[in-house]
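Dear Dr. H.,

I hope your travels went smoothly. While you were away I took the liberty of generating a structure for the chain from your last submission, since the lab meeting agenda had it listed for discussion. I wanted you to have the full record in hand beforehand rather than looking at slides cold. The sequence, exactly as received, is reproduced here:
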Amino acid sequence: MTPTLAGVLLICALLLFLATGMPIAFALGLAAMGGLFMAMGPEVIGVVAETMFAGIGNLAFVSIPMFVLMGAIVAGTPAGADLYRALDRWMYKVPGGLVLSNIGACAVFSGMTGSSPATCAAIGKLGIPEMINRGYPSSVATGSIAAGGTLGILLPPSVTMIIYGIATETSIGRLFLAGVLPGLMLTVMFMGWAMLDARRKGFHFGAAGVHFSLRDKLAALPRILPLMLIILGVLYVLYGGVATPSEAAGAGAMLTLVVVVLAYRLFKMGTFRDIFGSGMRESVMIMMILASAELFAFALSSLYITQSLAEAIASLEVNRWVLMGVINVFLLVAGMFLPPVAVIVMSAPLLFPIVVQAGFDPYWFAVVLTINMEIGLITPPLGLNLFVINGIAPQVPTREILWGALPYALVMVLAIIILCLFPQIATVLPDYVMGEAI
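The corresponding predicted structure, in token form, is as follows:
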């Protein structure tokens, strides 16, 4: 069997499993075992467990459940609501200001969690009903939250950046810094589109009957400032060389828990059970996907699919920007069918040497790859954020959520083009803080 035919069969099997509604991790694992059986026969049983455990047997992965726990702490307590209300009080007079508040809240919340689904769930539960009550169309209310939630995998601390750094053996601290300016740029672009859409559709009624005094605005700050200081502290110890990503994540999760418990007097055992249960479920899901993706990548390699694809891409005698265009199309399509974690684990080791050989900065490419994954989070058929929003607001048809989020996907395509024209947006901050990469 040729590698091309084996690859087609493997991908078809994966899509078939996904179409049945099977969880991503199980679909990846079963498809991988089928591929390995074709390559190795019954002996495949002997390598499955070893390969899966080897895929997650990296100490750096400890930072993932810690950052996820930070998100669960904020999302599962009144801290998320206070964050949202504080931004709303400062921006309520701007036409379409409630949309801007939601996007801003998503950006700040993303910096605390590194998780897009957690961001969508936390901000969406508060923002979507409030926007609909103030007269915003449901497509605008849900689409802005779905898009704003994607910022969770670009702004630090980003779980996908951690996984990319481990898969490509690049600096996680530098990757975090590379995502800061593009993340802020994308936030501003989202807000720009929201304001344009607000003016175009006459959203001057967004703040009708609502008024907050300066005292009200300042009163909302004391409870959220400690959380912001924790994020700044985590980033400082990480970039200052004081702690490793795993240590910084653990300390950040512990400090966040202490601050939230003391600020809101959350001493009931049920609160801790819900917080740790939510964090554990999402962490286990991510680690299962990582383990299954490692097995899937091993199957691709055993069938010589990755090697053949790498040779085919490397042999393209085209301009390097045409090559980057081909890679972007591949990432866009992959992101529509697989979660970011799975795409990065499977594609980063394959694409990384090709990108570096073509003369592209690997940290800039990490940002471009991540934005492609963001687009996949709000595009069918497996747009994770769309399903999260649909679960939060089941009364809103999925079609309306999709149409509301689609303009933001186009904004992200524009952001990729801007990064291609001005790659310094992603590289200037890491080079300034940590020195130029060797």
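Two observations you may find useful: The two ends are 42 Å apart (CA to CA). The first helix runs from residue 3 to 19.

With kind regards,
E. W.
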